Amino acid sequence: MADGVQNAAVICCFMTPDYQISENCEKELQCAADSKIRIIPCMLGDQNNTEWKPSGWLKLVTAGLNYVKIRDHSDLNIRLKAKELIGRIKNQYLPPAEERAPAPPKFFESIREKYLRENRIKRIVNEEKSFPIEQSYINLAMIETKEQQEKEKKLKEQDKHGRPDRENDQDNRRPYQHNEILGTYEEIYGTKTSINVEEIFQKCKGANKKVLVLGRAGIGKSTFCQYVTYRWAKHDLWSEYELLVLIHLRKLTVSRYPQGKEYSPSDIMKKEYFPYDDIS
Questions:
Q1: Global model pTM greater than 0.70
Q2: Cys-Cys with 233: which of 112, 143, 176, 249 at CB 3.0–4.6 Å?
Q3: Which segments within the chain are labelled E, that is strand?
Q4: Closest CA to 68 of 47, 93, 43
């Protein structure tokens, strides 16, 4: 038993009352903890007692660890949590020292910690109140190219005929017209297919994967970006990427980035995240 535990890269323990009272399970997990092997606790709980939590030795061994919560035994939740567990196993596996890639720069972790702190969304009506970002529902759809050309024509015609003649009217109608065009784009540009957040890059065939997120003002584009950076920081999403950087386009102004100079991604990241630090 000891050899099996010590040769493991990661130990996953599925916590239930029966697991907690098992002497063999206690010895295995304690051996893993003593050997400094990574432990991923999965909370199955007790169907007869939804408030059950580990206690005694199990509580001590798993204290401070981030649980994979599988109390909800619905098919959808099981699938989601299985993906989360697989992602964490991949992320937490450490190959032998001679095979390891160089450790990422320290500022990578600073960015990750920032995303973890930004774990709540302010309400639109009352910004003093907020709710956990994990409760946010992000509904995404992929736009197919079927009948795309005909629908593009319709969109261009609306844009052309919708332009007002008078300058004042143009200023007054611009916000409305912008949302109107975006709404039409969403409605007619193509056939939409629902897609999970985890799968959006799988549809990209090129080496450089690019995804354009469209939507009316207030529909949730910024919330979506905050949501994925938070899940990445928790190792729940896209763990194959060492760094995920969120840049708010509204900050890329001429006053902050004067013309006449080319700005690299690292230049922008330094200004937005580390204006007073040297990250070179």
A1: no
A2: 112
A3: 10-15, 38-43, 68-69, 120-122, 130-132, 141-143, 192-194
A4: 43
Count how many Cα atoms sit within 13 Å of the Cα of residue 208 in the half-sphere of its side chain: 0
Cα gap 56→194, rounded to integer Å:
45
Residues 69-107 have pLDDT tens digits of: 888 878 888 888 888 888 888 775 545 544 445 556 778
pLDDT bracket for residue 21 (50, 70, 90): very high
Look over the chain and give the mean of its residue pLDDT values, rounded to a whole number: 78
Instruction: Report in angstroms the alpha-carbon separations of 144 from 2, 186, 223.
Output: 53, 12, 24
Q: What is the 3-state secondary structure (H, E, C) of 216-277?
A: CCCCCHHHHHHHHHHHHHCCCCCCCCCCCCCCCHHHCCCCCCCCCCCCCHHHHHHHHHCCCC
Euclidean distance between CA atoms 213 and 142, whole angstroms = 9
Q: Write out the H or E segment, with its range, that includes residue 3.
A: helix 2-6
Q: Find all residues with CB under 8 Å of 220, minimum gap 6, and list them.
A: 136, 138
Instruction: Identify whether the C-beta of residue 6 lies closer than 8 Å to the C-beta of residue 35.
Output: yes
Domains delineated in the chain: 2-100 (3.40.50.10140), 139-219 (no CATH)
Beta-bridged to residue 122, according to DSSP, are 130
Per-residue pLDDT tens over the stretch 172-187: 555 555 555 555 555 5
Q: What φ, ψ does residue 172 adopt, rounded to 5°?
A: -70, -35
Q: Which residue has the tokens 């990750």?
A: 112
Write out the two tokens for 54. Answer: 């580990």
